[in-house]
Amino acid sequence: MLENLFQNNATWARDRVRSDPEFFRRLARQQAPEYLWIGCSDSRVPANEIIGLDPGEVFVHRNVANLVIHSDMNCFAVLQFAVEVLKVRHVIVCGHYGCGGVRTALDEESHGVISNWLRPIREIADLRADELAQAESRSAFEDKLCEFNVQRQVDNVSNSTVVTDAWRRGQEVTIHGWVYGLKDGLLRNLHVSRSA
Ligand code: CO
Q: How far lies 6's CA from each of 1, 2, 3, 10, in Å?
């Protein structure tokens, strides 16, 4: 069962040690990532790989449609740990074009629990309906909404007690909003960064 995954893992671990014999021993002692990545669960958007970082270099939280909901204990426990314990310098909220979560949020049909989860995206669409109405196609509309969603989640991180408390203490942490393109593998900076 899933033997291929164990084989892949054994090969990967062996290759790692071959190029850096101390790699795992060093990592096992501590992690000191400079970045927290908050991204979509989509299997095509693997955080480490996209930004070319090794294990130990980026702390990661992913959920469907990269949402930061103030009542989400999971997300906020990650954010608090990243900021207060790991002392990351950058929090990156990264959405992606072609996000199934964003598309599903617009669907009139109910999809059960996931529709509840995605409800905040519908609210963003309602709030920014005028801007979205200028989109020339359905995909342009959805892409724009992906960007607006990232902007909103950057606001949610920035307005959180974890981040405002950190800024009040004088801790340097910057919040960024990016979007990844599934079609070209490239990141776009939305230039909505926030710092103290
Ligand atoms: Co997605």
A: 10, 7, 5, 6
